[in-house]
């Protein structure tokens, strides 16, 4: 999840140990996935680096720290995937996974997830084609994402409700999916046949409507409750 800096202190939560070496801007960790000008000091908040996106999916890296998410063979190896109700229905999550501690940080630092932004950034797509004055920077070659891309489709739209889903790392599988009426083709996290260990809403919508994931989260809580009896 990309984030945009704001001036309030609450937008600068403490940075967890795993992210101590990661670059920062305005007191916030720059996620590994975020498009940056040369030197990774000047992020284009809200824009995704397409090369890093491909790497993160292919190598099972955390989208925030860029480290290996693990293959599930270690004890307690868990992965968090941020999903929306429409992702669950489609069976594919376009957001790459995160370590639980990186997810906890993102939930507090990312304006989209923390509920501080009513809509996705509409200028992210435009910002990435504005070159900086560093002649060594790649930004002259940056091309705007196609109008079919997830990023372009989100731009300027009202924000979706987002949920944090905890799964076993063995259930974290990247699959290719074909385009249909709900979105273009691409790669994403398979949401079919997985065991959801925990599901929490991290960002609601203005309407407070109950989504399929609210129902699932309530069912999981009920199961946990009855397991304890
Ligand atoms: Zn640049
Ligand atoms: Zn991480």
How much strand content do the residues show?
A: 15-25%
Proportion of helical residues:
10-25%
Rg over CA atoms, rounded to whole Å, is 18 Å
The major beta sheet can be summarized as: 3 strands, antiparallel
The tally of beta strands, per DSSP, is: 10
Count of all domains = 1
What compounds are bound to the protein? zinc ion
Shape, please? globular
Class per helix and strand makeup = alpha+beta
Descriptive notes:
This protein is α+β, with helices and mostly antiparallel strands and 229 residues long. The chain has one domain (9-228). Helices cover 24% and strands 20% of the residues. The protein has seven helices and ten strands. A three-stranded antiparallel beta sheet has the order 5-7-10. Strands 6-9-8 form a three-stranded antiparallel beta sheet. It has a two-stranded antiparallel sheet with strand order 1-2. A hairpin with a 6-residue loop joins β3 (34-36) and β4 (43-48). The longest helix is centred in the last third of the chain and has 17 residues, at 212-228. It is globular, with a radius of gyration of 18 Å. Residues 1-9 have low confidence and may be disordered. Bound molecules: zinc ion (2 copies). Residues 18, 62, 64-65, 67, 98-99, 102 line the site of one zinc ion.
